[in-house]
Design goal:
about 240 residues; mainly alpha; 434 Repressor (Amino-terminal Domain); Arc Repressor Mutant, subunit A; 2 strands
């Protein structure tokens, strides 16, 4: 379903929720009921007409547009080819991660040694790869879901294993709001699946807080990384001590 179709679908749902029939709407905007029905039967609608209908129905236009954007199907992962393209250019991967963190263009070039034209070019490439949708004035929206994850054992995750994990765990984890836990247990398969579901819920909660805090000023937020792993595992040093 295209974006204009989604907007019309959301607008139709808003009218139903408000108890406004096509006949009532027609009277409010000075059209015949048949013309209103025909207009909603089309796959597109002029922005001026959309704004007129929203005003007549008492529905904020920005709410309709936002809900339509939220309803757009989004991918949870990239393809192996897309990830390989990111790994071919470290700066492209950097800007991709910044975009996943909802950094603005200005924030990226103020923080990293990237010129504005170079950063814009990298964002154009991310648009081509399908990670973001670049908009006027160098703004963008994400084309991936809030539960986005890198491919298991894919190019990016392999890079993280080789170059990021050791660096990440070299930290002290004793700052405000920081912690490091390593909790061994013996679980049944059913219990493991239950815990995995809770981990997924935690990831969704992180995404919710991340979205909510976007309203705050940049100096009120800090970059954080939640790194979770859950698997059947024992340290090789301990395995060497097992009885034969």
């Amino acid at each position: 379903m295209s974006s204009p179709e989604l907007v019309i679908q959301v607008l139709r749902a808003e009218l139903r929720a408000a108890g406004i029939t096509y006949k009532a709407l027609a009277g409010r905007i000075g059209m015949s009921e048949s013309s209103v029905k025909r207009m909603f039967g089309q796959k597109d609608m002029a922005l001026s007409r959309l704004a007129q209908i929203c005003k007549a129905a008492g529905v904020p236009l920005e709410d309709v547009l936002r809900r339509a954007a939220d309803a757009r199907p989004q991918a949870d992962t990239l393809t192996p080819t897309q990830e390989k393209s990111l790994m071919a250019n470290p700066r492209l991967l950097l800007v991709a991660i910044c975009c996943l963190g909802n950094w603005t263009l200005d924030q990226i070039i103020e923080t990293y040694r990237l010129t504005e034209p170079e950063c814009i070019g990298l964002m154009v490439e991310l648009d081509r790869l399908g990670l973001i949708e670049l908009k006027p004035l160098n703004r963008y929206s994400m084309r991936v879901s809030t539960t986005f994850r890198w491919l298991p054992d894919g190019p990016v995750q392999q890079y993280f294993r080789e170059n990021v994990v050791e660096d990440y765990f070299s930290g002290r984890f004793d700052g405000a709001g920081e912690t490091l836990l390593c909790l061994p247990a013996r679980l049944s398969l059913a219990s493991s699946r239950e815990l995995l579901l809770k981990i997924q819920q935690l990831a969704a909660e992180l995404a919710r807080l991340h979205q909510a805090d976007r309203r705050l000023a940049s100096d009120e937020r800090d970059g954080v990384t939640l790194l979770l792993g859950f698997q059947s595992w024992e340290s090789s040093a301990f395995t060497a001590l097992r009885r034969a």
